[in-house]
Structures are given as structure tokens and as C-alpha cells.
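In response to a reviewer's request, we include the raw inputs and outputs for one of the modeled complexes. The two entities were modeled together in a single run.
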Amino acid sequence: MTLSVQIEKSLGSKAGGASTDAIRADGFKLDVQFEAPAGFTILFGASGSGKSTTLKSVAGIVRPDSGCISIDEQVLFDSDQNIDVPIRSRGVGFVFQDLALFPHLTALANVEFGMSDLPRLERRRRAESMMEVLRISHTSWRKPRDVSGGEAQRIALARALSCKPRLLLLDEPLSAIDEATKLEIISDLKTLNRELCLPILYVTHNREEAASLGERVIVFERGRVVARGLPLEVFGVPVTTGVARLTGVENIFAGSIIEKSEADGTMRVDISDGAGLCRIDVPFGNQAVGEQVTVAVPSGDILLATEEPRSTTLRNRLRGRISAVEERTNRTVISVKSGVSWNASVTRQAVKELGLSEGKEVWLAFKTHSCYLLDQS
Amino acid sequence: MSEIDWFPLTLSLRVAFIATVFVVIIGVALGWLLARRRFFGRELLDATVTLPLVLPPTVLGYYLLVLLGRRSPFGQAIEAITGQPLVFSWRGAVVAAAIGALPLVVKTSRAAIAAVDTNLEDAARTLGQSEWRVFRRVTMPLASRGIVAAGMLAFARALGDFGATLMVAGNIPGRTQTAAIAIFDAAQAGRDRYALVLVLILSAVTLALVYTTNKLTAGR
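The model returned the following C-alpha cells for the whole complex.
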């Protein structure tokens, strides 16, 4: 099964109804086109970039100004042919950002809700087995307000899947959940994905979520698709400063080119972050000496050492002092002051083995080709 | 007088009960329409259903008399179906009481329905539910406090209707004389004790209803 979407919609301050994720006082146009085969397709971007509106258009909750949405041969929406299949007939499972569990019903009744055409016993049996798979059987007789965030999230998922949808839409489903539960649910989602073989559209602005789901990513920016591909491709080579920031490349600096060496294939750049200066080598490009540039270095590409790494091919070697150590979901980010303030991602084990802590003197090292010159935008 | 005539009070209760059933069905439907649908003339409809609240009861009664009278097409149709005229019967009193209570039901249920999260309704739609089922299974249960409150207000209002009822149903003792009209009659005729009994009973019932309504709507 493949979902294909090509829609346009003006998102003014008036449009989109009671949308909560919108920073669109100025208004812009949503204009996107993509295909989603079975498996995860991650719609990635900042709040108000149009991802949620796209998801709601696919579900039929929001009506695009024009375009076409279809699953395989079946058209769900086509402005030219005047087709607009009502929400209830689209066969989509939708998990809302706030989950939208029915507060007046028990967890079990929530899961049974969409199967109202089945006989009562069959409905009960299916709901119970679905809840067992997701390990929430113990919540059956509780109301949504009496379950934990992770349980509520699974109830919403069970409810969406109970109607056997042809398409699963998840709108920032994990935004309100603690880190540990998040990882658990992500692994559940991966298992479900292998079993169900459905197109799953997953909206998020969290890079780690996107990266850990590990399939196709579509990056939204102000209503347009600005990048698409595997997480590594998309997040590894940022195209614009906007995407770089969104994808979590923590080291972005303004700088100017000092000298160029075509023979070496490098350029020397002075970068600054307002507080200090630093000189690094970047790949040779067509910029002129003296030109202003923006340089990005992914935090995962920076190597940390407690002694000077002399005999390596790494051209950029900087000496500095650790100013902060911050724990993240599955890595630790070390901030090092060396002229400018750098961020490097390392594993917890490495932190322990090297005894990395605040105030310690370290060396930073990274390849010339880990430095990306960004488009000015 | 030693024997108290309970007919006006039982008639009022019966009229108010039937009027409440009708006005809740119509009023909640209008409240839903106003809260959930965008259409041309929406606010004009809201203003129109509010009119019975502010118009003099005689004006309202006059409209109803003209609209439902034996010479109007509407009145004739009803007479043809039920075999008896609507005006100057207890059924006329039901219509007058229902129209008087309509604004309260529409306003209260519109507010209650508007307070229901539309995401929940959309969630029900994605689960294959028709508009009617979305209303019955999600919107109505979640707005139920407000809808019950609307019904109780409507009952209290219908119980006390005077002007419009007098115009449409008349003042026929033993047939269309409701409690509110009987109080007027008794006070005019100097039967003060009878008037006082009815006044106290109506006040007590209405106070209890409004008190409960306030409790219901404040408890969210």
C-alpha cells in the first residue's frame, strides 16, 4: 500500500481552524508533495511548518484548497474531480497530539469505540487482545484520567489500530512522555510496523525520535518540503541553516574565509560565536577569500581526547576546557570552550572511561569534511 | 374555601413536562447547529431564538395566536391531523411554554456543546462514526451536565409561563387554567389563601430547580 499526497492550502491566521501548533500570524502557503509506502515516513519540522495540517488533510479533518490524496488506486481527495471522502470512510487510524481519549469512557470502551458494527463479544475479544499486545490489559476498567502518560499513549494506539486502518497517522504522539517510556513505545511501534505493513505517517519535531525510528524523513519548513531521505542523509548533510538547526547540528558558526588552498582542497576559516574566535579548516569551495560564510559541524563528528591526537588524519585539532556535561536520551553532550563554544556527542561509557567532567582540559578533533558550509538563508 | 383545587397545579406540571421534552429536543439540536456548524445567518438564527426571552409575553402570544390560530394554514393543518384546534386547549399552553423556554435551552446547550473538545469528535469520526453517532456517543455525554441543566431551566421556565399561555390557551378553569393563571385569578377575586398556597409551591419547585441547575453547571 502506498499513500500519495499532493496538496496546497493557504494557512492564514484564519485558516486551519483551532490549530494549536501554529505560529502563523503572518500566514503562508502549504504546498507539499510526497509518497509514503508501507513503513514509517517521518514528517519533520518546527511547530507551525505545516506537518500537522498535512496529517489532518490526509485524515480528512482539514480540507486542502487543492490537490489530490490517494491510497493505491483509491482517491480520498481530489479537488479537480470534486472528491472528498468523509473522515469516517477513509480508513485511517489517527493518534492525536493530545491523544483525544474519550474521558467519559473506560480504556476498554475507548478501544472498542470504533468497532461498533461488530457483535459485542467479538468487539470485546478484539479489544482485549489488542490491549494485551500493547501490555495495557490492567488499565481496561480505568478512565483515561487515571492512567499514566505511557499507558494513555498505548490506549490511543490500540484504539486507532482496532478498526484495522489502511493507514496510521501519528501526530507528535510522544511529545508528552518521559524519555524512558518513549524508547519503549518506539520499539513497540517498530514491532507493530513489521507486523502491520501499513504506511505510517509520523509527525515530530524531535530529531532523536525521528532518527530512532530510522526510516524515510521528510523535512518541512514554512509549508514546503525542503529535504527528504533517510535520517542519516537528511540529518547528516544539512542544506540550510534552518534544517541544520532543526536536525540538531549543534555547532553552527558565522565566519569568514582567510585563505584558500586548492592543492590541499581546503580553506581556512575564522569562526566566531560572539564570545570568542577560532580558526578551522573546511573543504575547498567556490567562495572567495574574505567572504562571509556559515559553518556547521555535527556534534557526533567531533572526537574528544585527553591528550593531543598527534598522529591522525584529522586536520582540525583544538585544545579547550569542558564547560558543561549534559545527559540526553541516548548520548551525552559535552560543551567545550576553545575560542568558540563547541558541542560534542559522546557515549556515556566514553564519559566514564575518559573521566570527562566540567573544568577538565581536552582536545577536540574533527575531519575537514565534517565541516559543512551552509547555504545562506 | 376549605377544599383546595389542585387542577391548575397538576396541569402546569403536565404542560411543563411535555413542553420540556419538546423544547430540549429542538433546543439541543439548535444549540448543536449554532455551536458546530458555520452557515449563512447563524448569528441571526441565534438572535431570533433569543427573542422570546426579551419580547413582551403578549407579543409572543400574539405571534403564536396568528401562526397557530384556526384560520392560519398551520393551525388548520394541526386541526386536520389531531381533530381539534391547538389554540385555547392545553396543547396550546404546551406550545406557549415551550417557545418561552427555547432561548434558555439553546443558550445553555450551545455553551455546553461548544465546550466539548472538537478533537474528541474528530477522533470519533476517524473511528468510522457517523455524525449522529459522534453526537450521541461523544458530544452529548460530554455536554450532558449542560443539557440536563438546560432541561431543568426549561421546566422551571415553562412552569411559570403566564402571558403567552394566557393569550394562546386562554383562561378556562378546569381546562386551560394553569397555576400561574390561577394565581392571577385568585388574587383578583380576593382568594388570598389559595393564591398563597400556589405561590409558595411554585416558588419552592422553581428554587429547587434553579439551585440544582447552578450546581450542575458550576461543577465542571
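As requested, we also summarize the result in words. DSSP finds eleven helices and no strands in chain B. The mean pLDDT of chain B is 91.
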